């Protein structure tokens, strides 16, 4: 068996693994990144007929306060951003539409709240932003609201926000402390949503550039099948033919993969429960159109149908050929619908009707559709009694964990970036090894 030694070996080349490898390489560590398939993991960009389909909207939430921005600045990543126009994000209210209030500007514009209710809601926003409103891990947001004397309109607004941002039609499943910590971040931001010009592939290429420029190694099609450990430390990870040893190991692979690898290690039983946790599944239906259909909004959400449409090419100029348009409909799948093909078909129909309503004439302009029926949006869903995996267990001192299944900040890729950042800082702090520190 061939053997190599590094300062840090990173297993998994999704956004979490890539950002950790780039961060550590940039700080002078000798790194190897091992990915079983292609780099990017679930953050994929696929080009078809001149349209760029991202596996997901590559929307970054609260960019100004995000860990991705910290990483971008620290590593000098070259990314061009296009920020969401807030007043173009609307609720479908049947006959009418209204602005979704995600900060004070949106609050003043929304028709969902009137008169005193605007002040009442603003009061809740202020309380949340200042950190006085914390919620309770044992109460869902629905239960939390029910226990308080909140006016029906404010109550409905909070429940709308919960379902809009947590990819769940069920406010009973969203822990209230998670709800408030999420909104504390969102209400403070000046940039609620941004898109990366060129999609995920641009970010992946940038991470690759930093790793390579700093002497790091990237090995694709390299599946780790075995790890060796002693009582306190991981000593090596292995493919069939190669052994990689290091001072530190970062596992940026999902819980079911971790469980397989960590059998007969001191943390085997600690990992078990995370494999049982449910992911968040959604359904995507993207349509590439030959000719742009103008609209007053670039994001429209229908809470009754649990569907929203984003005009991706409005923000990402590279997503469609000149004059064309790329729209994306996302629908929430309830747990009982996940493996139900009938429910998937119904969802597609609902999405097509929603396109008909808001982008009339899209069928005539259709150049290419692309549906994705059951992708894992977030590997561990924010739900009552489901919490993220710790980024470290004291029993195995040099093993670290990162990914959107880990404890961190925000949702989706921000969980990958924040856990990656935390892990990188911990490794660098160990010997005071931060460059320039
Ligand atoms: C349809 C869709 C839409 C999305 N939209 C958004 C969005 O708009 N905004 C946003 O912020 N996020 C979005 N996300 C979420 C975002 O894509 C994920 O949070 C992020 O990509 C997760 O990255 P990760 O590195 O944590 O995990 P992953 O991408 O799952 O990476 C894990 C990697 O580990 C590799 N691996 C596994 N086992 C092994 C092994 N044994 N050896 C070597 N390698 C291994 C896998 O091949 C994979 O590449 C979306 C996701 C989906 C699916």
The total count of strands amounts to: 20
Main sheet specs: 8 strands, mixed
What is the CATH level 1 assignment of the largest domain? Alpha Beta
Q: Give the helix/strand class.
A: alpha+beta
Gap between N and C termini: 39 Å
How many H/I helical runs? 14
Domain tally: 3
Percentage of residues in DSSP E strands: 15-25%
Low-confidence stretches: none
Residues in helices, as a percent range: 25-40%
CATH fold-level name of the largest domain: FAD/NAD(P)-binding domain
Output the CATH homologous superfamily of the largest domain: FAD/NAD(P)-binding domain
Pfam families: Amino_oxidase
Protein name: Phytoene dehydrogenase
Organism: Salipaludibacillus keqinensis
GO molecular function, one term: oxidoreductase activity
Question: How would you summarize the topology of this molecule?
Answer:
Layout: E1 2-11, H1 15-26, E2 31-34, E3 45-48, E4 51-54, E5 59-61, H2 67-75, E6 81-83, E7 89-92, E8 97-99, H3 104-109, H4 116-129, H5 141-146, H6 152-165, H7 176-188, E9 193-196, H8 200-213, E10 217-219, E11 226-229, E12 234-238, E13 242-251, H9 255-261, H10 268-276, E14 280-289, E15 299-302, E16 307-311, H11 312-315, E17 325-332, H12 341-358, H13 362-365, E18 366-372, E19 376-378, E20 399-401, H14 413-430
Parallel strand pairs: 1-2, 1-13, 2-10, 7-15, 13-20
Antiparallel strand pairs: 3-4, 5-9, 6-9, 7-8, 11-12, 12-13, 14-17, 14-18, 14-19, 15-16, 16-17
Helix pairs in contact: 1-8, 1-14, 4-7, 9-10
Residues 11-17, 34-37, 41-43, 55-60, 223-224, 252-254, 257, 284, 372, 375-377, 403-404, 412-413, 416 line the site of flavin-adenine dinucleotide.
